[in-house]
Amino acid sequence: MTRVSAHRPAPGPASTPRRVCFVCLGNICRSPTAEAVMRHLLADGDCDVEVESAGTSGWHIGGDADPRSRAEWERRGVRHVHRAQRFTRADLDRFDLVLAMDRQNLADLEELAAGAPTTTRIALLRDFDPSAPDGAEVPDPYYGGERGFVDVYDMVERACRGVLDHLCAPSGHRGR
């Protein structure tokens, strides 16, 4: 397992991950927002990346995204069908890059990967946002007001653009 944190990941096409999973606790707010945003950004077709999202808990398996998250996506013109799922040990073999929304989910993912032979990179999503401080998290908007969902979308979009820069542009910059 290769962990990226406390510094910006080096861009580049050599050994570029192509299967990405976004992970939060319940897979109903932050990680489905990241999946929806990334799918939207990938719609132009100039980068081949498979994207999913999952939660570290099984509380909402099979459920839809939080209506407040969905409302924010739709307000921004993003459409996405979502069913919550739990991230499992077997998923480490399916994904090249796993991006946690916060340090607790990062620790849960690292514990799941402990002792397992894997080349999966596990990092915080905001490590890919050049405007975010080192170690920045995507806060859980679930118990807050509507503004939290707006802020989360903005953070996630900036970070997803950074992920695309890292994955898809030879120089590490897509020019978006």
From the 3D structure, determine the CATH topology: Rossmann fold
Q: Provide the number of structural domains.
A: 1
Please provide the count of β strands. Answer: 5
* Helix-strand pattern: EEHEHHEHEH
Straight-line N-to-C gap: 30 Å
Helix fraction by DSSP (H/I, runs of at least 4): 25-40%
Largest sheet: 5 strands, parallel
CATH superfamily, called what?
Response regulator
Strand order of the largest sheet: 1-5-4-2-3
Q: Indicate the CATH class.
A: Alpha Beta
Arithmetic mean of pLDDT: 87
Question: What is the general shape?
Answer: globular
**What share of residues are in beta strands?**
5-15%
Describe this structure in words.
With 176 residues, this protein is an alpha/beta fold. It has a single domain, classed as 3-Layer(aba) Sandwich (Rossmann fold), CATH 3.40.50.2300. It is built from five helices and five strands. A five-stranded parallel beta sheet has the order 1-5-4-2-3, with helices on both faces. α1 (30-42) crosses α5. The longest helix is centred in the last third of the chain and has 23 residues, at 146-168. It is globular, with a radius of gyration of 15 Å. The chain starts with a strand and ends in an 8-residue tail after the last helix. Residues 1-17 and 172-176 have low confidence and may be disordered.
